[in-house]
Amino acid sequence: MVCVALMAPRSAAGPPSPALPSSSGLARTGGAHWPPVFPRQPSCRRRRAGCVRAAQDDEAPPVVRAAVSAVTELLRALSPIKKQPRDSVQEAEELAPPPCGSVEDVLAVLQDDYRRAYFLTGDFTPGIYTEDCLFEDPTIKFRGRSRYSQNLNLLVPFFDSPSLELENIEKGLRVETKFVKATWKLRTYLRLPWRPLIAIRGNTTYDLNEDYKVVRHSECWDVSALEAIGQIFVSAPEQQKGS
Asked: Which domain of life, per UniProt (predicted)?
């Protein structure tokens, strides 16, 4: 995500904030993300190595960034008060699997994370990311796996009937950078008064360093940033029919 989005910090010095969808988690969140149907033609500009530079090539215009900030503050205001977590990333690291020694190892861990719909649950494996990993999507980018985890967790209470389907996952090589690329489909309602439906297809590229840790988590969506943000402000079709 995720989905979520998913991930717009208020400022460099302020607390982290999500932007829908992730990943990041739509928070990714922390990891921002909208007609409720999937468009036929992807808006991401394709390159020879695929849509792996989407967050830079498809950067959101100022109006979208303003909308992300507004939604972030809305989510923050409506979010239930939580105890200060003993950093969920720290807790997960205590139970982390052994370090990955190959691209195949990373791919296997990511497959497990997708089974747990990590964009939508915040349940991911932080040990495969560097501490200063770069997280980006078409609306925002920031560094820090802890920030990403916090953004995902901020969004989780707002998801209603969420689903994340992993359509494909494969390893690749771009110049001298090894990476894993996952293609997914995310769908969830949001627990807001007008109950908007978020529906996105996209892909996430995980760039790896020489130690097989993720140094860059980059999302590309099949809708523009403006279309993605717009979904948040439109009620679900079921709600419209019933009105």
From this structure: Eukaryota
